[in-house]
UniProtKB/TrEMBL annotation, chain A:
Pfam families: Alpha-E
Identification of the protein by name: Alpha-E domain-containing protein
Source domain of life: Bacteria
DUF403 domain span: 1-312
Entry-linked PANTHER family: BLR5612 PROTEIN, SLL1039 PROTEIN
From TrEMBL, chain B:
Domain Circularly permuted ATP-grasp type: residue ranges: 78-451
Gene3D superfamilies for this protein: 3.30.1490.270, 3.40.50.11290
InterPro entries for this protein: ATP-dep_Glu-Cys_Ligase-2, CP_ATPgrasp_2, UCP005522
The species this protein was found in: Belliella filtrata
Lineage, broadest ranks: Bacteria, Pseudomonadati, Bacteroidota, Cytophagia, Cytophagales
Pfam families in alphabetical order: CP_ATPgrasp_2
Designated name of the protein: Circularly permuted type 2 ATP-grasp protein
């Protein structure tokens, strides 16, 4: 397939997943704030930090109150990672390669775009309860996934989208987990108290992992939650699982026409996957949760750069590419 | 909805004759409309609009910084053409395309028609659309204009006239196809009852025609688009999707050893035929416009070497210049020795002294057009313009007479159209599509463009026009 098209499909996968996870992000905090004891303030700063937009948020002189943060993460077109930006970029990418998408996929994505845009125009962030909105964003994206699941051929294009989706999801899961690091407990000796449990519960619920976690581990325990979301090989939002799936797709893409060994994208991905495979949760905790997640995020960026070099930037070195008649 | 208050003007109405009697081929449609409440019609219109937005059937409007995407309003009352009338149109269009194709081959090669003085030599050779690099070239299979979308109108008597030939990259065919799908949902029972000829096989016919242009058994075909910001981008991606071929832009292509390749995730793959939707002079910065960011360096050399076919062939623009238009009836007689089946609108060439004097004296009654502008830009509608505008155009003509032609104002025919005041007559034109491959085929359908403003004669989508589904009947 065309490199440009592959690039767009990859980013379509990433942006859609990003929008869905942002909806989840914000949901964590809304959930959490409802369970807080009356004397504690809601904390919105951790969301901004975990999404990596702390600097731009501060520069723009915004304050960390509920409405401003929700607006920033949802409807702010100046924030290039907000839900509205991600959905817009996803649709732009889809528009560029529309002839490669099924009619249903395009139409549902187009509807999602108009839905979010309309809410932005109506200044929906001023509403008291936005959970329904986030629910709807999630559901619409899941509908697009479902349509693809049962209508799209497992061709190269499918694998580029999967690759984008799983890399983004791994990155987002690491950030959702990182929110917990940034949420401050009133004092360090409150670790293990009911308030601490509340935080972990909200976090699990935001990734639809609460019931599964309960069944596997029973009690809420911080190192178990970390193990579950980072190292579990069966839960579809754990980082390790995402890397396994991403690797399958990357190998499918790379396998055809392979002449030598593994390409640099496969190597970078394989490195992170095997690290997750060999690490125990104690390794994660000992290196510091935040630091560990930071490293994971940097490795994902490296993988993405290698994918770009191997498949999307062919123009610059086309002379060395083999010519197929 | 009743049509008691339907106003008749002096124009030809497609549905009613001058006595207010419904024409035969509109009977069934009219009785259905009469049975349908105005509320129901409004709902049908609403859901048609909604479907268009959901499908992303949008176009970009140039010079408009606000809304970059708009839908082309699709009126839910179709336009109906009986078969006998259509057969005459189809024969006339085939004849015209055949002659224009011979004309193009001639002026880029032997120039016999110029030597014989049928068409003034300097009109062709000085035209900015006469492309030097194409001189001496014969495109694959000798075909120049593969896809044509000819504009026609009807005058007071109901007679059809050719308005423009549109031999370059006529757009709108995707609206013909998608509008049909939407209108089918609105009147499911009527299609069978009336016997409407299908248009849905257009993409298959287009693909077959494009494949025919290559010598290979299984040629690789692509649609070449300027990209997402082009007003017709929806159509480019739509046609690529419907034909199941790649949609490529300039950056996807490279030329090596006079062959054209697509850059894929697995290296380079040769491409043989391009349905190109970018202008001639943007195709190759080495041959034409050096500033073109849209084109592919070296692609024209590949074309000359016969390694890539373009539809339409570069260089066709010279034959749909509005001044050359005036000579088309003579071109038909010259090459085919036949009387033109379809008439031209009488055209005054400002380049000719007598015509120019007539135009300057009668500008209030005429439509003045630039010879090489499209889309309703750069034109003056005399009867609707102010004195200042008349004066401005008089000056423009005096300063550059070769650049202008004038025609009498035509009274375009009307079709009932749903407006806020109920059904009212609105002016329409007709754009059928003609494919030229192994043979010439006129697709039995068309884009009917409608001027939505009351009394307006400007049907261009960029100037507030809408569209109607066009039904060509089996009987």
């Amino acid at each position: 397939m065309l490199s440009r098209v592959a690039n767009s499909i990859y980013w379509l996968g990433r942006y859609l997943e990003r929008a869905e996870n942002y909806a989840r992000f914000i949901d964590v905090n809304i959930n959490l704030s409802m369970d807080l004891p009356p004397d504690l303030n809601e904390q919105w700063e951790p969301l901004v930090k975990a999404t990596g937009s702390f600097e731009s948020f501060k520069t723009r002189g915004l304050s960390f109150d509920r409405k401003q943060v929700i607006h920033f993460l949802t409807f702010d077109t100046e924030n290039l990672n907000s839900i509205i930006s991600s959905v817009t970029f996803a649709r732009e990418n889809a528009r560029i390669i529309r002839e490669n998408l099924t009619k249903e996929t395009w139409e549902k994505l187009n509807e999602l775009y108009h839905f979010v845009k309309k809410k932005a125009i109506k200044k929906e962030w001023k509403a008291e309860d936005l959970r329904e909105f986030f629910e709807s964003v999630k559901n619409q994206i899941l509908l697009i996934y479902g349509l693809a699941e049962s209508t799209v051929a497992r061709s190269e294009s499918w694998h580029f989208r999967q690759l984008g989706m799983y890399l983004e999801r791994a990155d987002m899961s690491s950030r959702i987990l990182d929110v917990k690091y940034h949420i401050l407990l009133p004092s360090p000796n409150m670790i293990g108290t009911p308030l601490d449990f509340l935080h972990w519960t909200a976090l699990l619920k935001s990734v639809t992992a609460f019931n599964t976690y309960r069944r596997l581990y029973g009690n809420i325990d911080s190192s178990n939650v970390v193990e579950f979301l980072v190292l579990n090989g069966t839960f579809p939002r754990s980082i390790y699982y995402c890397m396994l799936e991403a690797e399958k797709s990357l190998q499918k893409i790379s396998a055809e026409g392979r002449s030598g060994g593994r390409n640099s994208a496969e190597k970078a991905l394989g490195e992170l996957r095997s690290k997750l495979e060999f690490d125990d949760v104690t390794d994660v905790i000992n290196s510091g949760l935040h630091e560990y997640l930071d490293e994971v995020q940097l490795k994902i960026i490296k993988i993405s750069n290698e994918i770009d070099k191997n498949f999307f930037q062919i123009k610059h070195n086309f002379i060395t590419q083999k010519i197929e008649q | 909805m009743d049509l008691q208050s339907y106003e008749f003007s002096a124009n030809f109405d497609e549905m009613f004759d001058t006595g207010g009697k419904c024409r035969g081929h509109y009977q069934e449609l009219l009785s259905l409309i009469k049975k349908t409440s105005s509320k129901k019609l409004g709902q049908l219109q609403f859901s048609a609009n909604k479907t268009q937005v959901a499908m992303g059937m949008t176009f970009n409007v140039y010079h408009d910084s606000q809304g970059t995407e708009k839908i082309l309003h699709l009126d839910i009352v179709p336009r109906v053409i009986p078969n006998a009338e259509w057969s005459m149109l189809a024969a006339g269009l085939k004849q015209r395309i055949k002659a224009l194709n011979l004309f193009l081959q001639d002026i880029y090669n032997d120039r016999q028609i110029l030597k014989d003085g049928i068409v003034p030599e300097e009109l062709i050779l000085n035209s900015k659309d006469y492309l030097e690099p194409c001189i001496g070239l014969t495109p694959p299979k000798g075909i120049w204009c593969h896809i044509t979308g000819t504009d026609l109108v009807r005058d007071k008597s109901g007679e059809y006239y050719i308005l423009e030939d549109n031999l370059r990259c006529p757009s709108g065919v995707s609206y013909m196809l998608e509008s049909r799908e939407i209108i089918k949902r609105a009147y499911p029972e009527l299609f069978n009852e009336l016997g409407v000829m299908p248009v849905s096989d257009y993409p298959a016919k287009l693909l077959k025609m494009l494949q025919f242009l290559s010598q290979k058994d299984k040629p690789v075909v692509g649609v070449l688009t300027p990209g997402i910001y082009n007003s017709a981008y929806f159509e480019h991606s739509y046609l690529a999707l419907q034909m199941g071929v790649e949609l490529v832009s300039g950056v996807d292509l490279v030329v090596k050893d006079k062959k054209v390749y697509m850059q894929t995730t697995k290296g380079l793959q040769q491409i043989d035929v391009l349905y190109r939707r970018i202008d001639d002079t943007f195709l190759d910065p080495l041959t034409f416009n050096p500033d073109s960011m849209l084109g592919v360096p070296g692609i024209f050399e590949a074309y000359k070497a016969g390694n890539i076919a373009f539809a339409n062939a570069p260089g066709t623009g010279v034959a749909d210049d509005k001044a050359v238009y005036a000579y088309v009836p003579r071109i038909i007689q010259y090459y085919l020795n036949e009387e033109p089946i379809l008439k031209n609108v009488p055209t005054y060439l400002c380049r000719e002294k007598e015509d120019r004097k007539y135009v300057l004296d009668n500008i209030e009654a005429l439509v003045v057009k630039e010879t090489n502008a499209a889309g309703g830009y750069g034109m003056l509608i005399g009867p609707k313009a102010t004195k200042e505008e008349h004066e401005k155009f008089r000056e423009l003509i005096k300063n550059n007479p070769n650049n202008y032609i004038a025609q009498p104002t035509l009274s375009l025919s009307t079709v009932p159209t749903l407006t806020e005041q109920g059904l009212e007559g609105r002016h329409v034109d007709l754009r059928p599509y003609i494919l030229y491959g192994e043979d010439i085929e006129v697709i039995p359908g068309a884009l009917t463009r409608v001027a939505l403003k009351k009394g307006s004669l400007v049907v261009n989508s960029s100037q507030g026009g809408g569209s109607k589904d066009t039904w060509v009947l089996y009987k």
